[in-house]
Amino acid sequence: MFNLFRSRKRAVRYVLGGILTLVAFSMVITLIPGLLSNPAEATDVTLGEVDGRPITAQSVVAHMAAQGVSSDLPFNSILLSSTSALDELVEREVLLTEAERFGLFPDEQEVAEWMQLQMPFLFPEGVFVGPAIYARYVRQSFKLGIPEFEHRIAQRMAVDTRLKRLVTSDILVTTPELEEVYRDRNEQASIEYIKVLTADFTRQVQVTDEELREAYENEQARHLVPERRTVKLLLLDDSTLSVPEVPESRLRQYYARNRATYRAPRQARASHILFMADMESSGDENPDRKAEAEEVLRKIRDGADFALMAKEHSDDTNAAEGGDLGLFSAGEYPAEFEQAAFNLEPDAVSDVVKTEVGYHIIKLREKVPARTRPFDEVRDELLATLRQETMQRDRFALTDRVSAAAREAGTDLEEVGRQFDLEVRTLPPFSINEPPAELSGDQTFLNALFDNEPGNPALSTEGGITKIGVVSDVDPSRQAEFEEVRDKVRDSLVTQRSTDLAQQRADRIAEEARKPGASLRRVGSRFGARARSSEFFKSSDLVQDIGRASVLGPEPFSGALDLVVGPLRVRGNFVVFRVLERKEADMGNFADEREDIRKTQLDTKREAAFRVYTEAKVAAYQAAGRVRKFEDRVRDFARLYSRGRT
């Protein structure tokens, strides 16, 4: 409940950290310099415009690479992906134009403050490391120059934070909406079902060589041996870096320069009794809940035990502990609550205090004055900070030297490994869709390896490991011979026919079960299929033998009892079911889940509203002739991206 409102400053940092993640996600273009057949001619081609500002093939390449779109896909898939990428970039440009119109772009000082908050290792001992180390960090981590990096941060802040907040700030979630969501989440149902397994029909399927040949000939486009590449991989592990010694004098110097950082703010320890109320705006009142709070306050002033009153009346999750909130600092709770708490003397009880979540009665337990934490108390923190900053700079410098040596060495990465005493692995040939374990989960790095020319290194840093990869050999994509894919064709044909037989059986079961007076259990026994009854489940639960309840559709919670539903295809099998019973949601736990539901629904409604706003703005720009898309150029671009395959 109320404790969910704590640590708002930390929440802001998480949001800003999310911006950094989004920035990093879009910064991939310089990793893939050889992506198009002729980048010098192709990447500057304008594929679209917003207010005359071009959207180039280069930006579409970056967007597609960030989405993991491989150039080995068929032409039609590449065309669809590039068209979608252009649409999304047009949307982004429109939103940036609107953010600029409203004056929402942060200035240089605001961007600098953001970076100092998110990248403290660039400000050791409170002093900026300087443009050279900063540029090296940005180049290695994001593959960008300083101006472009800071410009993209500003864009993200302007659109994803400020414009979205401006557009959606008036959106609220009402109590009836919250109750409806709670009911939908917590209503339960049980079903009787029959599951028809495709695998049960596999033995009935016989496939001749002629049928296999025919299937192979009819679907040759599906039977391609993808391009495979042999990669040499050099690994730099942060854990192998020596832990630097930090002299005592430097620790004390750092502490002296940053004493303000180690100033602990004033704190208070308090207990409270919360009377939750529907406070949708700062001016709202809830007379019934306020009167209830005032009555409890009267009892406390007449001598009633505060902790006992909290246990009996508080809506907060800490009611059983007498409403104890523990120690807290300024900024963790709503301003009205903190002002009242810090103005009390120890053991004093406040008047009824109104906040955005309801009404409170506060009892102050103790006050802890602000203080500066002494050197001895923070020495270990100082040591860890300075060691981390030093190791970070050492890693940047080493990565620069190793990368330069790799560019010089070309495919002879072993020489670089010997020079720097680093491990080099040669990975067996692999395709982009079946990467080895060392590369799985790093799609940007994988894309770079499959788009770079042999000998041109690609670099990735993640989880303390820096990988430098060089392609040493390329086996081009080709049409698979029949014998190479014979087993694959057989498996596909058998699965298809088994699925058809299973669906026919499920159709018959459903048809018979819908007849008047029919029993699903008796119908199942006639077809050799067992009917089972489920336990009660919610819409978000797993149903035994079936999977997520969502695959059953809305009928378990909205259809008529005894209605036969199906067959539904569920993970390659088929399910026929009928609803046995339902249980209404227990509203007794609504208060415990209310705030979580409110936040989720508010985020959902605001995202939906911003999507509507975005689509309306794009449509308005198009109607006014402010957006242009060059479809012929997009088609030509897709051909280049797919390496000439149509």
Task: Provide an overview of this structure.
By secondary structure, the chain is α+β, with helices and mostly antiparallel strands. Strands 16-3-20-19 form a 4-stranded antiparallel sheet. Strands 12-5-14-13 form a 4-stranded antiparallel sheet, sandwiched between helices. It has a 4-stranded antiparallel sheet with strand order 8-7-10-9, with helices on both faces. A hairpin with a 2-residue loop joins strand 1 and strand 2. Helix 4 crosses helix 7, helix 8 packs across helix 20 and helix 9 packs across helix 17. The longest helix is centred in the middle third of the chain and has 35 residues. The protein starts with 7 loop residues before the first helix and ends in a 5-residue tail after the last helix.
Task: Work out the strand percent.
Answer: 15-25%
Average predicted local confidence, pLDDT: 83
Widest sheet: strand order? Answer: 16-3-20-19
Q: What does the overall shape look like?
A: globular
Helix content: 40-55%
- Detail the poorly predicted runs: 1-42
In short, what is this structure?
With 646 residues, this protein is an alpha+beta fold. Helices cover 48% and strands 18% of the residues.
Distinctive features:
21 helices; globular; alpha+beta; single chain; four-stranded antiparallel sheet; 646 residues
